[in-house]
Specification:
single chain; 0% helix; elongated; 11 strands; 4-stranded antiparallel sheet; mainly beta
Length: 120
């Protein structure tokens, strides 16, 4: 059973920083793209940032220059460093990963989400 577990969310003032780690566990052969999504109340879930196995990154325009995604393949972990946070960054942040697991089955997995709240 593959699981993704996020942590690091919380309440922070505007201009502050948070770091979100997401750890994958279970029988895992390969983790391809790892991503962070977020969903604010009343809005659709949106892609925040993604990073491929080779390290290529992609960011939503709204977070470019403020957020940094990185990964540690040995630790099966993806990180989202969020700086200069704004109230509009308030959302539940979800980890997503494309994983090859037991039986060479390849599927997309989601974490349970972690709440980030930015006060003005």
């Amino acid at each position: 059973q593959v699981q993704l577990v996020e942590s690091g969310g919380g309440l922070v003032q505007a201009g502050g920083s948070l770091s979100l780690p997401c750890v994958a566990s279970g029988i895992i052969f390969t983790i391809y793209t790892m991503s962070w999504y977020r969903q604010a109340p009343g809005k659709q879930r949106e892609l925040v940032a993604s990073i491929t196995l080779g390290g290529s990154v992609n960011y939503a325009d709204s977070v470019k220059g403020r957020f940094t995604i990185s990964r540690d393949n040995a630790k099966k972990t993806v990180y989202l460093q969020m700086n200069n946070l704004k109230p509009e960054d308030t959302a539940v942040y979800y980890c997503n990963a494309d994983i090859v697991t037991k039986g060479w089955s390849r599927n997309e997995y989601w974490g349970q989400g972690t709440q980030v709240t930015v006060s003005s």
